Amino acid sequence: MRLMSDEDEELAAFADWSTSYRSGGLTLPAFFVAPPGAGPFPAVVFHHGSGGLLGAARAGAEALLDMGYAVLLAVRRGHNGAPGIFWETRVTAPWGSPEMGPQLVDALEDECDDAVAALAWVKEKPMVDAARVAMIGSSYGGVMVMLAARRRAAFRAGISLAGDDVYVNIAGGMNLEEPAADLSVVAVVASSVRNRGLSASTAVFGEVGLSGEIRGIPQAPLRIREAVQMGFSRVVLPSANVERASADTLIERHECELIGVRTVGEALDALI
What we know:
Layout: E1 18-23, E2 26-33, E3 41-47, H1 57-66, E4 70-74, H2 87-90, H3 100-123, E5 128-137, H4 140-150, E6 157-160, H5 182-194, E7 202-204, E8 207-208, E9 214-215, H6 220-229, E10 234-238, H7 239-246, H8 249-253, E11 257-261, H9 264-271
Parallel strand pairs: 3-4, 3-5, 5-6, 7-10, 10-11
Antiparallel strand pairs: 1-2, 2-4, 8-9
Helix pairs in contact: 3-4, 5-9
C-alpha cells in the first residue's frame, strides 16, 4: 500500500521503496529495501528526527544496503503528512514549563509505539533475520531508540544519534572518499567528545566496519613510509597490516612505533 502526502517532496526520494505498517489503529507510511536474493539479511530500522523523514536519508540507507543490510525507514504518526497528531501540536504548554514535560513525554511514548510496531513489521519479513535487527535514530529518532530499549523491545543493537552534529573539515579542499580515512575520523570525533587531544606525532588509518571492527587496507607500508617522512613516529593501524609493514626496512630504520588494533575500542584506548 502506498501512503505518501502529495505535499511532501521529501518522501518522493523513497517512492520506489514505498510500503506501510500499522500502529495504534493508524496506517503509517514506510520505505523498505533489501539486498538482492532470498536472505535472510540483517536489518536496520531507521527513525527520523522531529521534522520528519528527509530525502537526504536515502544516501545512508543505500550505504547500509550496499553492506548487505535490509533497511526500513518508518514515518511516525503526524510526520510528513502521515495520519495521527503531530507531536508539537500536542505540546501546548510553554516550552520549559512544568506542564510541558508530561505533554512531551505522552507524545514521545505514542511515537515509541510506532517505533516498536515498525520493528515488529520488519522482523516478520521472510528475507530478514529477526535475530539481527538494529535500530538507528537521528535526533528525535534517537530518543525513540532509547525509549524502545527502555521498553525492552527485541532488537540486537541500538544507535542514538541525538544531541550532536559532526562536521569534518579536510585541509586543502580535497574530497576524501577512501575507507582508510574512517579510523582517523572516528579518532577526531572521539577526541572532541572526550575533550582530550590526540598526539601530534601519531598518524592513524584504517577502515571501520559497522560492528566496530578495524579492517585492513591496501598499501599500508607506503602510507607509513609517507607518515615517517612527514615526521610521525607512531602509527595506529589495522592489526591485519602490521606484520607486512613491520618488515619494511625504512620503517624499522626510523624506529616508527606501529600499534595494531582490531576494534574501535582498542584504537581509542591507544589514542586517547
